[in-house]
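#onboarding

Welcome to the new folks! Below is a worked example of what a typical request in this channel looks like: someone posts a single protein sequence, and someone else replies with the predicted structure as tokens. Don't worry about understanding the tokens yet, we'll cover that in week two.

Example request:
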Amino acid sequence: MSKPIVLIPGAFAGSWVMENLTRYFSEKGFDCHAPTFRHHLGKARDEADPALAGTSIEDYTRDIAELIKTLPEKPILFGHAVGAVIAQKLAAQGLASAVILINSNGLWGMLPPTEEERNLGRDLMAAAPFADQTMRVDFDMMAAFALNKMTPDQQHDVFDRLEPESSQVMFELFYWMFDNNRAIYVDTEKVTCPVLVLTGAEDKAVSTETAKALAEKYGDRATFYQVPDAAHFMMMEDSWPKLADYCLEWMTSKELN
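Example response:
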């Protein structure tokens, strides 16, 4: 029986951001599942689904948990950015055999350590109100913080596929100190499976410092690796095969295949 993998996207995106990894690991014999979050189409659109407003990271987490329950065994969870936070929340519930975190945002209680991360939070605060709203990101913000290792054509290709996101999700992610529900809190002691923490050396949205601090929370359960010449969307950048090969080597070392 093929080992299941669930690949969880980040905000504003859908399963398409995981297409390279889905194809790669499917060809290696894994049973890959790449869901799109509720009220997302998985493709660009002009208007948000009204139901998206007020949707929480907790909602996304419950949806992925329901998917996992349909699988024959605990999957390996790949997560990108907020998807990596969700992967950790699920692992703390005992629903993962391993987690692979691709440029994970920090968890509840982790302050942004770099000026660039603080600037991103500031710019998102200015982008839209948070209560019962949806929001979009503009091209200049994405090009500077997340798509900085892509050519202009590649940047536009990715940006043009992004769709609106719940402002509540962004509030929970960036302004966790005001979130009484602590949506991005993870009891890391309950994550007993192996954890691979990946950081792009050129990522402007989530720094290597954040990734190192996250790895430290997991002690000897974690493996930390900085991907050279990679940025926030490294699973879509030209160097993605090196990322995939490293993940496979790590999975093999942990006897996960």
